[in-house]
Amino acid sequence: MYSQPILEIKDLVKIYGKGTKTKLAVDHISLTIPHGSFFGLLGPNGAGKSTLIHCITGIAEPTGGQILVDGTDVVKEYKLARTKVGLSPQEFNVDIFSTAEELMDFMGGYYGIGSEERKSRIDELIKRFGLEEHRKVPFQKLSGGLKRRTMLGRALIHTPKLLILDEPTAGVDIKQRHDLWSYLQEINSLGTTIILTSHYLEEVQHLCNEIAIINHGKIIAGGTKEEFTKNGKSLEQAYLEITKESETEQK
Amino acid sequence: MEHNNTQNQLDSKHTNWIGLFTMFRREVKRTFRVAIQTLVAPVISATLYIFIFGMVIGSQITEVSGVPYITFVFPGILMLAVINSSFASASSALYFMRFTRGIEEILITPFSYLEMLIGFVGSAITRAVIVAFLILGVGFAFGAISLTHPILFTLYIAGIASIFAMLGILVALWAESFEQLQVLNTFVITPLTYLGGIFYSINFLPDLAKNLTELNPFFYFTDAVRSSMIGISEANSLIGTILIVSLIIALGLLVTTLFKKGWKIRA
Q1: Would strands A7-18 and A21-33 be described as parallel, antiparallel, or unpaired?
Q2: Which one of A34, B110, B137, B185 has the lowest number of neighbouring Cβ atoms within 10 Å?
Q3: CATH T-level fold of A1-84+162-168+192-251
Q4: Is the CB of A58 inside 8 Å of chain B's CB atoms?
């Protein structure tokens, strides 16, 4: 049993800019995700999902509030907190001239993993994601699907307790998408907590057991998948209804 | 799934040595990936300088400060290459990472802000040292080498490389285009380096120019390297050493503070 949740967000605020040119991107969000959850984070473009992820991972610094990853404060104990989180970002933020193998190797090194352990982990991930033939190919020459798989491998190199996936299957064909789903379900069943953001709502409905919808920097709905899909509704229908209502209230 | 506990040692009390070594290793790979630009070009430039100023012009000059002209100019030529390599390495690496958002790799991994500074500066020094060794090889070939104080030489080279690596980081943070990346190099570093007594003795200059040269920090950098290589000094060595150490501390504090604030690198 775990004494604390894998992720605890308390009254998080993130404001971009200074003076008169400011933008409130996250507006007093509180959220708790237990260990082992497969959590879907949904919302329209610009709703605040990426900012929330950036605050958890260290790419952005919160303006107010607190984020604890497995009980570790991401600002005060940022080094330790970062060892517990893996991120597969929406954008390919890599050195495009490096190979898939090098990208995993460098990332593993940054996380402080020794060379032997790193090598064995890279071999495992390369095999798992079907990258054997492409391990020495520069990232820029890989197809969209292979790039996504490389990004996932890179995010998993240090076997994080919390894996954050921002649009992990964008540009991936249907067969590969199903393969990735199987793998994600497998590592989730083995204890890795996953936060997934995706515009493919059938993907979220298939994988996630808990869901939150964010809009205008606030969580506007949250609950189990069953709560969202009760009365025979699809997640997509529920999502559209909730976000429409939120837009109306905002006006 | 068995979660990895190796990196759980990486809290605020433990240094991320493997991470730092990875940053150096990555820069070495990058250096060799574009070897024509990073290694061959500075060696060709240095060889031309040595040939033209050392052999052609030098053959018409008997001695400067009691040594052959080629021996007098070689330390400055080597320092020029070290300055250019360390500045280019740090500025291009960080600017490219900002441009591609590759900097997020560093931001999400367990590096303290001081470790980020050491990683970027150490990587730039690594490239500058590789270039320095290659140019020393050219110097050997031309018989221009003399190393009176090897330890001092190494310290001065590392110190000067770290100063220009940190200036490179500042420019990479500030620049919003590839053109801006060249501004400091074009308008400050290159002119001050050439006017810092690389190719001539300060004693050749009229009094006003001599006094102005003594206000040029690059004069002290050149003199420090030269004195450690050939044992001849035209400047006050104490001022030079204090200047180098002060600049390292001041720039180190500034860069670490900017990293901590996340200026231009955080979302």
Answers
A1: antiparallel
A2: B137
A3: Rossmann fold (3.40.50)
A4: yes
